[in-house]
Amino acid sequence: MENQTIVDALMLGLLEGLTEFIPVSSTGHILLAGHFLGFESTGKTFEVLIQLGAILAILTVYSARLWKMLTLLPRDAATQRFVIGILVAFLPAAVIGALAHDFIKTVLFESPMLICIMLIIGGFILLGVDRLALKPKYHDVMEFPLSLCLKIGLFQCLAMIPGTSRSGATIVGSLLLGADKRSAAEFSFFLAMPTMAGAFAYDLYKNRDILSAADLPIITTGFVASFIMAVIVVRSLLDYVSRKGYGIFAWWRLIVGSLGLIALLIWG
């Protein structure tokens, strides 16, 4: 890593775990925090690789359910349809992400002003959607039709612009397409598994020649911090959004985006 400390990595890892599964853009938060901390990682890999901690958090929290799905998969039509639905939703991001990887990392990841603007725009959108009197048609992620899964996957592609939020794009898309608040968040959890794992593997492959053993302590610190914080968030988020909705996260985005914009205009 070019310019970093273990303390910075710990703080950014905790921030990743806190924000990955709520609709506020974890990547946007990490890039903004890194900008103001002066944290520079090799090829911007730290920001992607520490997502493995959040992936493992999902696997840990959902381990029993995932194991049950695995055992039912060969013979249960509903489980088969759900797994296919997740893969269908993942496909658009996989294709576009691979094609636009270099542009995303070298241009969009280097644009803190864009991140702040997207945080603010997304905040207004999330606030508006949360206040709509929507009538949900889908209450169980296992019953999402494949057409719905594909549409949610297309919404997820918007999150390639940092500051948009992967979970925010999929949750807003799910809500607008007829899912209730709990199932929208849960589908976002499941879709995160192949999406984040794919981003992790592809980024590691693309940067295999520039990473070194010296990068390991920083990445490991961020990974562990991300895992611990993400477990806490995943265990509590579904119950919270079922009762309270997403309004608090909309205001979160508006405040962080506005403060970031002000800081950039003053200090650059």
Give a brief description.
This protein has 13 helices and no strands. The chain has helices at residues 6-19, 26-37, 46-49, 51-61, 63-72, 77-99, 101-106, 112-131, 146-156, 166-176, 181-206, 216-244, 247-267.
- Overall average residue pLDDT: 90
Strand proportion, as a percent range, falls in under 5%
How would a crystallographer describe the biggest sheet? none
Tally of separate domains = 1
Q: How large, in whole angstroms, is the Cα Rg?
A: 18 Å
Structural class: mainly alpha
Low-confidence stretches: none
Cα distance, first to last residue? 23 Å
Q: What is the β-strand count?
A: 0
EC number: 3.6.1.27
Organism: Borborobacter arsenicus
Catalytic activity: di-trans,octa-cis-undecaprenyl diphosphate + H2O = di-trans,octa-cis-undecaprenyl phosphate + phosphate + H(+)
InterPro entries: UppP (IPR003824)
Features:
about 270 residues; 13 helices; about 75% helix; about 0% strand
Question: Overview of this structure, please?
Answer:
With 268 residues, this protein is mostly helical. The chain has one domain. The protein contains 13 helices and no strands. The protein has helices at residues 6-19, 26-37, 46-49, 51-61, 63-72, 77-99, 101-106, 112-131, 146-156, 166-176, 181-206, 216-244, 247-267. Helix 6 (77-99) crosses helix 11 (181-206) and helix 9 runs antiparallel to helix 10. The longest helix is centred in the last third of the chain and has 29 residues, at 216-244. The protein is globular and about 50 Å long. The model has no long low-confidence stretch (mean pLDDT 90). Its EC number is 3.6.1.27. The chain crosses the membrane at residues 48-67, 79-100, 112-134, 146-164, 184-204, 216-238, 250-267. This is Undecaprenyl-diphosphatase. Pfam families: BacA.
